[in-house]
């Protein structure tokens, strides 16, 4: 009878670097889990503050926690090292400056117990200055689903995070999964492969509280050439996996909605960027979207136009467009073609000469009117 079966053992990997102010909260949230059968390894990734000492203190207090001290190798390397040192039927990753809701692992493991899927993913909240905020796009992606394949919901590829998921360890090992090392944005290639290779459960429960803080890896200045190079590299790796999967529908959703999703952040940085950064931005746009262009992407109208202008090497107009858009109080102005009734973006002539732009780059979709 399942009534007396043992709870599954969950292995939790906690990479830690320079988090002396946050590690205690993180570990306390693990100790507060309603699922209590877990083992955790804190990987002290060459910290120069008190992080290593704090980790050792927790290991002395709770025999479910161990610590590995290593030279600094970055987040991907720390996670991979942790996987080698942790046991369990299931595997999870917890960033050391974030916290878990009390039922996070019980919710994820409960779904996997019932479905037999290879991994499960739940929604998140961002821990911002004015409280916890669930991003609307995360809520949209996390309509409940069990035993799914990527063809059932290709847009789930946009949930790239490592830490709102639990994997079946047998699947992780059999699929040969690991985190890329020596590059930022290392979550996306591995989570993409997980969705492509495995079956998964999608939960609408919030299973993670993501702390947005200055100085964290995710807040690294995106205006650096290395940051943008890393972003392109992990997008390239992810796209290669999607293409190898061989589903035109999944590839279309991935290229237009997932791969393009964060580009608006980079377009905002065009004013004042260096020539080297601009060349790298343009080369990535041309490589990944090419003749299809960003006109067909899920970006907002102004950023679709910006993407088209980037591909055309019209830097001055991208700069003017971004500066104009940032000064708007609401949505960008629109105009209707008298003859056809079609709606389009209306941009001042001093910003962009619309007569020199592909009409598709200005066109509005029905839901944008």
UniProtKB/TrEMBL annotation:
<dbReference type="GO" id="GO:0016758">
    <property type="term" value="F:hexosyltransferase activity"/>
</dbReference>
<keyword id="KW-0808">Transferase</keyword>
<dbReference type="GO" id="GO:0047355">
    <property type="term" value="F:CDP-glycerol glycerophosphotransferase activity"/>
</dbReference>
<dbReference type="InterPro" id="IPR029044">
    <property type="entry name" value="Nucleotide-diphossugar_trans"/>
</dbReference>
<dbReference type="InterPro" id="IPR001173">
    <property type="entry name" value="Glyco_trans_2-like"/>
</dbReference>
<protein>
    <submittedName>
        <fullName>CDP-glycerol glycerophosphotransferase</fullName>
        <ecNumber>2.7.8.12</ecNumber>
    </submittedName>
</protein>
<feature type="domain" description="Glycosyltransferase 2-like">
    <location>
        <begin position="12"/>
        <end position="136"/>
    </location>
</feature>
<dbReference type="Pfam" id="PF00535">
    <property type="entry name" value="Glycos_transf_2"/>
</dbReference>
